[in-house]
Design a protein that fits this description.
By secondary structure, the chain is an all-beta fold. The protein has one helix and 14 strands, in the order ββββββββαββββββ. The longest helix is centred in the middle third of the chain and has 4 residues, at about 190-195.
Length: about 325
């Protein structure tokens, strides 16, 4: 959703914002030199089981399958600083120098299979920690990312999946808003924060590789409903608070293998689909024209399907499990 140009919020305000009849326009348009810093915390939990297996087109009776129960918890924390810079010819919208600090990803797992329980925990750091990079979108909406230091020896692949939209500008309305105004946004508008951990490279301990899932390619569908619930001025800064709610269908695919399956082997594709019902709140700094804070909580249900890739020897194989999920995000 494209944000409109911001209206002035009171000619008398020293930061240059004006307002008229308590109606404001929301956009991501900070002046060059603006610096915004946020603490990001993301927590995901999944519990499930109910294993079903199909081999060569035939469902395996439940009495021949092991009992499977699992619980996974994944958390990510970071401090994100965006330094907004003058635009360049190939960039539309804000061009920013981003620095990520205190990057940590943690993964905890409890898996019960045929009566035997395995517990596992690991923590990772990232090679992007304290390594500034430049970030923006070109005219086609494609991400442009490069190291802030042209002499950097870091691998360009580290920037392959980063996205600029952590300010969640896709949630902003096209028209001016006042108290009580409502509008809708596509669920993909929050993809950058939902995918924050997936978009970063992580250095996991060598003994964690077989237990920590690899990065997934995620898509998001659904509609979010947004409502202005507060407009206030604090120390000559105008803030707009917006509630949001709705359903988000997250579908993620990743490459895997069947090494843990006794009756099949080879490579496979894992597809996880979860439908979250979410509620949250966005606070927009209207005067500075960027995000002030964001929080989102959700609960969901879904399934994970693992399908053996075609063209391999041995029987066809697929399995599914069911799960419940919880999601908590804070950006402040």
């Amino acid at each position: 959703m494209q944000a409109p140009l911001i209206t002035a919020l009171a000619a008398s305000l020293s930061l240059g914002a004006t307002h008229s009849d308590d109606t404001v326009k929301l956009q991501l348009a900070p002046t060059s030199g603006t610096v915004s810093t946020y603490a990001v915390e993301i927590l995901r939990t999944i519990q499930g089981g109910d294993l079903q297996v199909v081999m060569n087109g035939n469902e395996v009776p439940a009495q021949f399958l092991p009992k499977l129960e699992f619980e996974f918890t994944a958390s990510t924390t970071a401090t994100v600083t965006d330094h907004f810079l003058p635009g360049e010819n190939d960039i539309t919208g804000p061009w920013r120098k981003r620095t990520l600090e205190d990057l940590t990803s943690a993964f905890d797992m409890s898996l019960t299979y045929s009566g035997e329980t395995t517990d596992f925990a690991a923590e990772a750091s990232s090679p992007l920690d304290d390594q500034p990079f430049l970030l923006g979108l070109d005219e086609d909406g494609e991400v442009v990312a490069r190291w802030a230091d042209p002499e950097s020896k870091l691998d360009d692949e580290f920037l392959a999946r980063v996205r600029p939209e952590l300010h969640l500008e896709g949630l902003l309305p096209d028209e001016p808003v006042a108290m009580g105004a409502t509008w809708e946004a596509d669920a993909s508008a929050v993809a950058a924060i939902l995918d924050f951990s997936e978009s970063l490279p992580w250095n996991w301990p060598s003994d964690a590789a077989e237990n920590v899932p690899g990065p997934a390619s995620n898509t998001y569908e659904g509609t979010l409903e947004l409502t202005v619930i507060d407009l206030r001025t604090e120390d000559e800064t105008v803030f707009c608070t917006v509630s949001l709610s709705g359903d988000i269908v997250e579908t993620g695919t990743r490459a895997t293998d069947l090494a843990q399956v006794p009756v099949a082997d080879g490579t496979a594709t894992e597809t996880t689909t979860t439908t979250f019902t979410v509620e949250g709140e966005l606070v927009w700094n209207v005067t500075a024209a960027h995000l002030a804070s964001f929080e989102l909580k959700g609960e969901g249900e879904g399934e994970q399907a693992t399908v053996k890739d075609p063209g391999q020897p041995g029987p066809d194989y697929s399995s599914t499990t069911r799960h419940k999920a919880q999601l908590e995000i804070q950006v402040k």
